[in-house]
C-alpha cells in the first residue's frame, strides 16, 4: 500500500520534528514492525528529510524554541485547569516556589487571595501576576535573565536556593517523558530545576497534554517517582501510563481544576492518582 507508506513517512518526519523518532515507539504508534520503520527511516534519510541516529532518527533542523510571549496564548484552557488544581493544594501561610513559564504563571494568577502566602519564583510571569497582591509576599531568586523564557538562571539563583526550603515546588517543562524526565532547551534550566526540587518534599511538574512524551531538546533533568505530574484532559492515557508504571503520581485536571480518574481499563481508578486530590492544605 504505497499511499499508506507515504502518509506514514510524512507523519514520521513531523514526529521527529517534535522529538519522537525512536524505532520502538514509532513501531508501536503505527502498528507495524520495527523492520518497516527502519526501512521508512532509511528512505527518509536518503531523501534528506531526516538524519539517522542510534535507535531512531532526528530532524535535520533543530526544534525551534518559542519565546514565552509566543506561548502565553497557547493551550490557555489546559494551563488554567492545571493551575486551578495546583492552587487547591496550597494553604494559608505556606511558602511555595514557582518555576518560570506560562503554566506556573497561570498558577500565580490563582493565588492572589491566599492569605499569608509567600511565593518565591524564578520567572517574570509569576512576578507580574502577583505584583499587585495585598496578601502574597513575593520574592525573586535573582540571577541572569534568560530572554526566551523570561526566567532567571545561573549561580546567583542556585546560591539563593541553598538558603531556602519550601512547602511545595511547582515546575514547568518544554517536554517530559517517563524515561528521561524533564526536557528543556538549556542545560542551565535543567540544573536549576533539579536544585529547586531538592528544596521541598512535595514536587509538582505542571505539563499540559501536548508536552507529555515530547523530546524537543537535548537538556534533561530526571523525574523521581516521588513527584506528582499534573496535566489536563488533552493528555492521552497511553502517554500517561509509563509514568504510572514508574510509580509517579499522575493527576489529570478537568476545566474546574478537579482531578478525574484514570481513563484506562473500564472502571479502573488509579490509586496513586486518587490519593493526591484527597490532600488539602496541611
How would the blueprint of this fold be written?
Layout: H1 2-17, H2 23-30, H3 34-46, E1 50-53, E2 56-59, H4 68-71, H5 76-88, E3 95-98, H6 102-109, E4 117-121, H7 124-130, E5 136-140, E6 144-146, E7 151-153, H8 155-161, E8 168-171, E9 175-177, E10 181-184, H9 187-198, E11 203-206, E12 219-221, E13 228-232, H10 237-245, E14 249-253, E15 259-260, H11 271-275
Parallel strand pairs: 3-4, 3-8, 4-5, 8-11, 11-13, 13-14
Antiparallel strand pairs: 1-2, 6-7, 9-10, 10-12, 14-15
Helix pairs in contact: 2-3, 5-6, 6-7
Region (Disordered): 261-282
Organism: Actinoalloteichus fjordicus
Protein name: Transcriptional regulator, DeoR family
Sequence of strands across the biggest β-sheet:
5-4-3-8-11-13-14-15
Order of helices and strands: HHHEEHHEHEHEEEHEEEHEEEHEEH
Overall spatial form: elongated
Tell me the structural class: alpha/beta
- Report the biggest beta sheet as strand number plus sense, adding barrel if it closes: 8 strands, mixed
Assembly state (oligomeric): single chain
| Beta strands, count | 15
Q: What percentage of the residues does DSSP assign to strands (E)?
A: 15-25%
Termini separation comes to 59 Å
Helix tally?
11
Mean pLDDT: 84
Report helical residue fraction.
25-40%
Radius of gyration: 20 Å
| Uncertain regions spanning at least 5 consecutive residues | 67-73, 265-275
Domain HTH deoR-type: 4-59
Region (Disordered): 261-282
Keywords: Transcription, Transcription regulation
Pfam families: DeoRC, HTH_DeoR
Amino acid at each position: 500500500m504505497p499511499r499508506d507508506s507515504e502518509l506514514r513517512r510524512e507523519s514520521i518526519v513531523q514526529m521527529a520534528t517534535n522529538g519522537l523518532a525512536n524505532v520502538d515507539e514509532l513501531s508501536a504508534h503505527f502498528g507495524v514492525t520495527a523492520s518497516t520503520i527502519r526501512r521508512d527511516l532509511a528512505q527518509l534519510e536518503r531523501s534528506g528529510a531526516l538524519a539517522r541516529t542510534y535507535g531512531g532518527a532526528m530532524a535535520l533542523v533543530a526544534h525551534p524554541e518559542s519565546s514565552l510571549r509566543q506561548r502565553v496564548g497557547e493551550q490557555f484552557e489546559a494551563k488554567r485547569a492545571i493551575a486551578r488544581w495546583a492552587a487547591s493544594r496550597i494553604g494559608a501561610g505556606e511558602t511555595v516556589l514557582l518555576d518560570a513559564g506560562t503554566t506556573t504563571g497561570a498558577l500565580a494568577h490563582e493565588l492572589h487571595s491566599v492569605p499569608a502566602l509567600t511565593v518565591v519564583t524564578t520567572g517574570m510571569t509569576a512576578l507580574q501576576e502577583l505584583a499587585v497582591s495585598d496578601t502574597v509576599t513575593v520574592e525573586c531568586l535573582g540571577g541572569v535573565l534568560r530572554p526566551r523564557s523570561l526566567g532567571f538562571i545561573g549561580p546567583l539563583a542556585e546560591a539563593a536556593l541553598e538558603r531556602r526550603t519550601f512547602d511545595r515546588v511547582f515546575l514547568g517543562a518544554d517536554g517530559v517523558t517517563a524515561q528521561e524526565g524533564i526536557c528543556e532547551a538549556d542545560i542551565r534550566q535543567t540544573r536549576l530545576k533539579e536544585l529547586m526540587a531538592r528544596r521541598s518534599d512535595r514536587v509538582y511538574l505542571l505539563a499540559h497534554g501536548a508536552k507529555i512524551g515530547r523530546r524537543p531538546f537535548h537538556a534533561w533533568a530526571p523525574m523521581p517517582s516521588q513527584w506528582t505530574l499534573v496535566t489536563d484532559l488533552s493528555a492521552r492515557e497511553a502517554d500517561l501510563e509509563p509514568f504510572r508504571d514508574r510509580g509517579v503520581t499522575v493527576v489529570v485536571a478537568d476545566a474546574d481544576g478537579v482531578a478525574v480518574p484514570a481513563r484506562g481499563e473500564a472502571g479502573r481508578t488509579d490509586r496513586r492518582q486518587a490519593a493526591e486530590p484527597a490532600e488539602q492544605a496541611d
